[in-house]
Amino acid sequence: MADVTAPAPAASVPPAAAPERKAHPMWDMLFKRLGFGVITLFCVSILVFAATQVLPGNAASAVLQNTATPARLHALEVQMHLNRPVVAQYWTWLTGLFHGNLGTSLASNVPVTTLIGGRIVNTLVLVLLAGVIGTVIGVALGMWAAAHRDSVLDHVLSVTALAVTALPEFVVAMALVILFAAVVFHFFPAVSVFPPGVAPWTHPSLLVLPVLTLVIVIVPYTFRMMRAAMIDALESDYVEMARLKGMSPRRVLIFHALPNAIAPTIQVVGLNFLYLAGGVVVVEYVFNYPGLGQGLVNAVSDRDIPVIQAIVLILAAFYVLVNIATDMVSLAASPRRRLPRS
Amino acid sequence: MDLSRRDLLKTAVAGSLAVSAGGLLSACGISAAQTTSSPLQLSGTPKRGGTLRAAITGGSTADTLDPLAAITNADFSRVDNVYESLVGLTPTAQAQNVLADEITPNAAATEWTIRVKQGITFHNGKDLTADDVIFTFQTILNPKAPAAAAAGLASIDAKGMKKLDARTVRVPCKTPFASFYEALAIPGYSAVIPVGYNLKAPVGTGPFKVQSFTPGTQSTFARYDGYWQSGLPYLDQVVITDYSDATGQVNALLAGQADVVNLLSADVIAVVESQGKKILISEGGGWNPFTMRVDSPPFNDPRVRQAMRLVVDREQMMEILFSGSGTLGNDVFGVWAPEYDHGLPQRHQDIEQAKSLLKAAGHEGLAVQLVTSDIGQGTVQAAEVLAQQAAAAGMHINVRQVTATEFYGPSYLKWVFAQDYWYYNFYLPQVSLATLPTAPFNETHFNNPTYNKLYQEAIATIDPAKRQEIAREMQRIDFTDGGLIIPFFPPVIDGYGANVHGLVPSKGGLSLNAYDFKHLWLT
Known about the structure:
The complex is a heterodimer of chains A (342) and B (523). Chain A has 342 residues and is mainly α. Chain A has helices at 25-54, 59-64, 70-79, 86-98, 112-147, 152-165, 169-182, 204-234, 237-244, 249-287, 292-301, 305-332, 335-338. Chain A is globular. Chain B has 523 residues and is of the alpha+beta class. In chain B, helix 8 runs antiparallel to helix 10. The interface between A and B is large, with 59 and 65 residues.
């Protein structure tokens, strides 16, 4: 965040884009951050590759398990090209990447894109649905609680939010399954199993409990931040002024307080999305949801390096992009900080 | 972290029992009242049609439809329905012809003649012939890519096989191989694939043909109308879904999203039954041994191995791991085989004798590391129980848990004190894999000259009675001198819905009667 308001170094501005005038600081930031993002991803790929080399056992021994005679192990290692030098293996993967080729899964001998394409969609649906629903509920509840500060319901909401933040997601998930699917009621499916190649939204009932779990986990954070930021805004001089001018409470809340409370909340929303990209692993595990998290767990236990690389890079890219988007949006929401310092 | 989460999930499942037992809802009472048929009740007339949904653990992206490379439960659940073997195991763990019509040895057990049944077709319509049998064994023994069975069938002279007529093959062996027939019953050892087999368009002779297959996720199979056993299978379709662990499996069964689930732990039996679902408990013949390397200190001293075997309270271990079900072990494998010697004295816990053996060996207060991993039913828990029981004899067993991939990584077969899992098989084929110096999976590095000589004698003896006599002599050596601790043969616990019929318990050690779905029918 420190560099957000820094003056733009001329070198990083694409010269063709704006030759005669200084680029807008937001564009400048975007290009710089994207550049750093690419470098980050490159470093991540080296780290992940190195880490997979340190792990005991390789894809061949993981596949053969207790049928791994030396002859079988050797044959499979040759077939998987695991007997080549480590640097050469990495180089093959990297050059493949520049040709848009993520490689072939060692464990299943299927192209990585085929293997994880559906999983990306499945996880994205889960993350977006939970993120959007959770944000809307969190912001609405936060605004309401701030406007009705110290009411009974406000206290109930605050205490509940605090309690829920203490619950790990698998506890929430299991509680929901016991309550709504497996034991008490049988309203929704207990596991989210759908055929490969089928989009998850064609089976909406399978999404209910996984999304609900994630929503319950992220709402308290958004709610608490929104409430605090709104209370700050409502106590400010300009809101006082607006009230004195005789504006309706609703108008004060929505047009005067909300725009000023939204910037810190956006940061929390961004963090929530980042959490979702990781937290989804546990939820996918509990519901047997065929997403990226489940794919990554499988790939690590199989030492399936191309698949590990692809999934980790996708998650890392998601982190980078969400971070950039969060900063851009909160910058847009704070007009003062958008101007270059003179 | 992982362990605590798993524990918590288990507790949560167990907790759901409390909820339902409390009678919070009438729904539970209704579903419990509906369950009247016993798991063995086969009296109803089987009905054709329907789709069976199986929730299976043990799979991953490494899932395969290659019957010669199958390893995990998830693999066997699929390949056992698509392919068939020359010889298979009955539910009572006896070897029986499946595709084979007749298999006969010569007098020296150096040559076997296999004739396959007539009128069997692969899913592509091709007839099963002698060429397919030759192709299968040559694929298994391909030196460039040996299959899982290659080590166990190494005596076959792959180049010398000869087709005698359309359905008959002569299989010469480089060394006598009297246990050939029994070895063929090991899962994956004689699953027949057609000449020119292509894994991308896999066909077998089994009751179901492959419709779709996504490793690590889901696969579907359709009834093969040309199946040779008339009237079978009853089902139109089978959908097999991979599950990461028992939590999801049990939830799917309880919520009615799965019809059969495999390999449950004993602690979920009560929950499953309280919700009107069924449990199938089989006495498995598989074994999850502790393996002591007889060529490494401290286990190179037979007294230490004996002491270690004497500290185990086998009954207590089975009670803790499987709530008492399972079969008591006596440090010898092959429990259902006719040659298994039930006359050996049952070994029980004897702390005093263990202590005095340790003292005599100069290893009082022995400290040793036991490498464990979540590889078989209750392996990790068994390690923890053993450590506690051994403490009574003043031993300090430091349990080190590693991931399955690390366990089977570069140190596999080199661990000094570890565990493993084995599926059931007859005694002699398993000896050739486990306890000979030439055995590919000789975890204990066992190399006893008398034992080795006896094996060579047994393998050249066609007469079953004589062979059994020699095998029992070998078992006495296993019992007194071996490096394996086999405290129990774990039970196999599966779950199924009340709408599923035709399931029988089986002793082979694989779930759901070796995933025999052709006899299942739905109501």
